[in-house]
Specification:
Helices cover 44% and strands 16% of the residues. With 1001 residues, the protein is α+β, with helices and mostly antiparallel strands.
């Protein structure tokens, strides 16, 4: 026997007749005897205050004496009876089923004549349904209004019903040697299983609506539909005769004793009560054991006393189950008891090396985490945070007597929360420190993980409240007096939040150490990457000793200790051999990790980013430059820092910056990049000049970059760059700069006479011409091909102009071409006359979109000097290729007189064809317009031919008089007629009105 749950007490003895059935109503015993009488027994003490009420319900612990005997209450022997306290009725089965009103048993509510011959019945007190088994029939009645029973259903069954019980809307029947489920609505039968060979079928309803079915000495649990429940079986000592359910116990009547078992898995034996030859066990919130002439009551022992017994015998699960049955008004007492039991249970399991189960119990209790951490003395906690002895349910100590006063005497035997606290404290101090193996540490990890969410959430919430409170106080500094009045309240809140943070710090610090000891590196990294309250000093030392560098980096990072983290990471990158981690999950440290770490810091700490990015600039130049050019750091700041600490990377940074988004880069940075390129090119140029190896067509990588920058980058100061160029070299760069300054003549002269690359000159002209077509450009830009032609035909003059420009670098912007070309009228007179003859003296009258017959700015230029070589072939090729973009008349004036017409065929032939085509087109257009003019004149003539007929009925539209033979006028619509005099008068009136309105305005 584990503990005593019930105490047997003899209520009466020496009953004159054999007792068949028994029940209790208002502390009175109702006994049905074999002489067809109903005997009523009452407690010996009439006053309710004279007896103790430590039993459940109204059953009293004292002898019962006869009060009344109702002879002839039944006409035939009684089979069974059941009482309903909620409806105050007594249902008995004798010859038939009779229902009596309580407490006046002489009043009969009804007699179910159809139940004559019934052998068993079942009453559903909640719904008011009564069913009974008669032969092979099952009938169902319903009590309406507490007065009459109305038949609901009548079903047939395979055999005589030996036992039955309600289960929701179904009825479980024991027939023959099997159990079936009968649907009370449809009558459908469902077989469950065989009932056994030794004992008859036994059906017992459970408070949950499920059923307990007997199969010899085994009790099987099924649901309302008869399906087996997989939660164990009750194994009785022998096959029970009857079973009743009371609270959390199943009480079975055996042949030699009464057996009490728990309804919790594994359904252990709780107690045995030695009572032989009991033939009835009845429960109506009371347990009655009926012998032939005596009645025993099984009075439940108080829950408090049972809890004390179970706890003392280390049966903690049963004790916790009983705690849930404590009265609702003692909820705080129940929680205190559960905490005390769970803590004892946790210690018991911990001592028996069931660490996971022990932590489950600690977790279910309200015990402080410091209490559990005290079981692990090797875990280092912050020294400034003291861990006091736990006070279990300390808030219950003051009013504990009041809570216990409502219980029975046995309940007062329970240990008070105060005593439990001291007992737990003593036990905690005597617990032996376990060997910190893997299992015991993993149990602690699970415990701390389960506790962490609530503690960290509370700490974070209180920190947030402090920040908000500080912000409000900062905004109300003028109200110093009101803050002084509330200073005590503020200090109290601060202490509360400080305590929450301290608890979170203890938890996270301990959790980190345990996770390291159990080699949970990945889980530890997840912890450190999120919000944590780890004590940095303790955790730093702990991780350093074990070389958990990745975790240490995350610790620094989570606490915004970026300088320490980057310093450690730099050491790990620079000295990988000495800093090799011992943990298997640690990764190699690479320079890229520093860059990844720096990315989020660009907007918050740019100086720190610049400082540590210099350490990986040489090893990871591309990634570092991309980091610095991400846009989160001011470009000017980065450029200045690179210029001072890494000048060799300055150009690379500016290159990437401009390639990403040139429009947002300042002109200073563009100038900086171009000047960097130019400085390197000048150094390279000086070296080659010193070695006398300079060649204008030599291109180094840096010179290619400079040329590309000059052509693509806009916004830099070209004059400044031009001043730095040498006078005897880097002509291509000079040409590009002159082109940017709209000095097209000088730029083209460089391509032609210095670089001797006509192809570049022609490409230059194409770019300038296309730009002039897309936007407003100077006249020089639109005549760019004519300028190139002049350079081909007058090399001496252009060379002198170029030399003069080198001597005077400060050139004005967009000077255009103001040098006139010498007159060549005499030289090309004969050619012009021939062209005029071809076009019938109108060759220059019609011009295309690209041929201008007007006078050029270059007209009247000086003739080429005697003996100077000209580039006639290039000039002719230019005229042949770009005839449609050059003014033909001006081009012919520039050509020397010795030029043959045959050499100009490629130039003149398309011009003549174009002119002829234009002349024909204009002729067609003139004819079409002439025809349109004739059509309009014809329409006007047709309109003027309109005929107006005047008859005797024609009236004036204005004066409404007949027109007759008077002079008249017709409005443009052709139908409205008026006298001419009226028309003139209306026109004069309109003129006067119009003039007066204008005068008023």
């Amino acid at each position: 026997m584990v503990h005593s749950a019930y105490d047997s007490f003899q209520l009466l003895s020496n009953c004159p007749n054999k007792i068949i059935s028994a029940s209790i109503y208002n502390s009175k015993l109702l006994l049905g005897c074999n002489d067809y009488s109903l005997k009523i027994y009452s407690p010996e003490s009439p006053s309710p205050t004279s007896s103790s009420s430590d039993s459940l319900g109204n059953l009293k612990r004292e002898p019962y004496v006869i009060e009344k005997t109702l002879k002839g209450f039944w006409k035939k022997p009684l089979i069974s009876m059941e009482m309903s306290e909620s409806r105050n009725i007594l249902i008995s089965l004798s010859e038939s089923i009779t229902v009596h009103r309580l407490p006046n048993l002489e009043v009969v509510i009804g007699v179910l004549g159809k139940a004559k011959g019934a052998s068993v019945f079942a009453w559903d007190d909640q719904k008011g349904f009564l069913c009974f088994g008669r032969q092979k029939r099952v009938c169902i009645f319903r009590l309406e209004g507490g007065q009459n029973f109305v038949e609901v259903k009548d079903f047939g069954v395979p055999d005589v019903v030996k036992s039955m019980a309600w289960s929701g809307d179904n009825i479980c029947l024991g027939i023959r040697r099997e159990y079936v489920i009968l649907n009370s609505t449809t009558g459908a039968l469902t077989e469950v299983f065989q009932s056994g060979r030794i004992a008859p079928p036994l059906v017992v309803s459970l408070p949950s609506g499920e059923l307990l079915l007997g199969k010899d000495n085994i009790g099987v649990f099924v649901d309302q539909n008869g399906k087996l429940l997989q939660d164990g079986r009750i194994s009785w000592s022998e096959a029970p005769v009857s079973v009743v359910i009371h609270m959390q116990y199943a009480i079975a009547r055996l042949t030699r004793h009464i057996e009490i078992r728990s309804l919790r898995v594994p359904y252990p034996l709780v107690q045995t009560v030695v009572l032989r030859d009991t033939h009835l066990l009845k429960s109506n919130n009371n347990i009655l054991a009926v012998l032939d002439n005596s009645v025993y009551g099984l009075l439940p022992i108080s829950l408090g006393a049972q809890i004390v017994q179970l706890t003392a015998s280390s049966n903690f699960e049963e004790a916790l189950a009983l705690c849930k049955l404590l009265p609702p008004e003692n909820i705080k007492l129940r929680l205190a008891k559960e905490d005390s039991i769970r803590i004892r249970y946790g210690h018991y399991l911990f001592d028996n090396e069931s660490y996971d189960e022990a932590m489950d119990q600690f977790l279910a209790s309200s015990v402080d985490i410091t209490y559990v951490l005290a079981l692990y003395p090797s875990i280092v906690l912050p020294k400034t945070l003291s861990i006091s002895n736990p006070q279990i349910a300390v808030d219950l100590e003051e009013d504990a007597p009041n809570r216990f006063s409502g219980l029975s005497d046995a309940s007062q035997e329970m240990d008070s929360p105060s005593s439990l606290s001291h007992m737990e404290s003593d036990k905690r101090m005597t617990v032996k420190s376990p060997n910190l193996g893997y299992n015991v540490l993993m149990a602690l990890v699970k415990f701390l993980h389960n506790k962490r969410y609530g503690i960290v959430e509370k700490a974070t919430l209180e920190v947030t409240e402090e920040v908000v409170s500080d912000a409000i106080e900062y905004g109300n500094r003028s109200q110093r007096s009101s803050r002084a009045k509330n200073s005590s309240k503020t200090r109290h809140q601060f202490q509360a939040s400080l305590g929450a943070r301290e608890m979170a710090t203890i938890l996270d610090t301990a959790l980190l150490q345990v996770m390291v000891l159990t080699t949970q590196s990945s889980a530890l990294l997840d912890l450190l990457k999120g919000l944590n309250y780890c004590d940095v000093k303790i955790c730093e030392e702990f991780l350093q000793q074990r070389k958990y560098h990745s975790e240490l980096l995350e610790l620094y990072k989570s606490h915004d200790m970026h300088h320490e983290a980057l310093k450690l990471l730099s050491q790990l990158v620079e000295e990988p051999d000495q800093a090799e981690p011992t943990s298997e999950l640690s990764e190699k440290f690479k320079p890229e990790m520093i860059i990844e770490y720096l990315k989020p810091l660009c907007s918050t700490d740019p100086i720190l980013v610049l400082e540590y990015s210099m350490r990986v600039l040489e090893s990871c130049p591309t990634q570092t430059i991309e980091l610095l050019s991400s846009g989160n750091i001011q470009a000017e700041l980065v450029n200045s820092y690179l210029k001072q600490h890494a000048p060799n990377m300055q150009g690379r940074y500016l290159e990437l910056l401009i390639s990403v988004n040139e429009s947002e880069i300042s002109s200073d940075l563009r100038n900086e990049l171009v000047q960097l390129y130019l400085s390197e090119v000048l150094n390279w140029y000086s070296d080659l000049m010193t070695q006398k190896k300079w060649d204008e067509k030599t291109y180094s990588p840096i010179r290619k970059k400079l040329l590309a920058a000059l052509e693509k980058i806009s916004g830099f100061t070209s004059e400044t760059v031009l001043k730095r160029l040498p006078p005897d070299g880097l002509y291509e760069e000079r040409a590009i700069l002159l082109g940017m300054m709209n000095q097209h003549r000088l730029a083209l002269s460089i391509y032609v006479h210095k670089l001797h690359v006509p192809e570049l000159a022609l490409a230059y002209c194409d770019r300038v011409y296309e730009a002039s077509q897309s936007q407003r450009a100077s006249k020089m830009s639109s005549n760019i091909y004519l300028t190139l032609l002049q350079i081909y035909l007058n090399p001496v003059r252009t060379t002198k102009e170029f030399e003069n420009s080198i001597m005077n670098v400060d050139l004005p912007q967009s000077t255009g071409v103001n040098h006139k070309v010498g007159s060549t009228k005499a030289k090309v007179g004969r050619i012009v006359k021939k062209i005029a003859q071809i076009d019938s003296a109108e060759d220059l009258r019609f011009s295309s979109s690209s041929v201008d017959s007007g006078r050029s700015d270059n007209e009247g230029d000086e003739p080429n000097q005697e003996g100077a070589p000209i580039m006639l072939d290039e000039a002719l090729n230019l005229l042949g290729q770009k005839w449609d973009k050059i003014n033909g008349a001006q081009a012919l004036k520039l050509l020397p007189k010795e030029t043959k017409i045959q050499n100009l065929l490629t130039f003149l032939e398309p011009i003549v064809k174009k002119s002829s085509e234009n002349r024909r087109n204009f002729s067609v257009i003139r004819s079409l317009r002439y025809n349109e003019d004739l059509q309009v004149k014809q329409e006007l003539y047709d309109q003027r031919k309109a005929v107006v007929k005047i008859n005797s009925d024609s009236t004036c539209y204005l004066c409404h008089k007949k027109i007759g033979a008077s002079v008249f006028a017709v409005y443009p619509n052709g139908t409205t007629l008026v006298h001419f005099v009226c028309f003139k008068d209306s026109q004069s009136i309109k003129a006067v009105r119009g003039g007066s309105s204008r005068k008023r305005g």
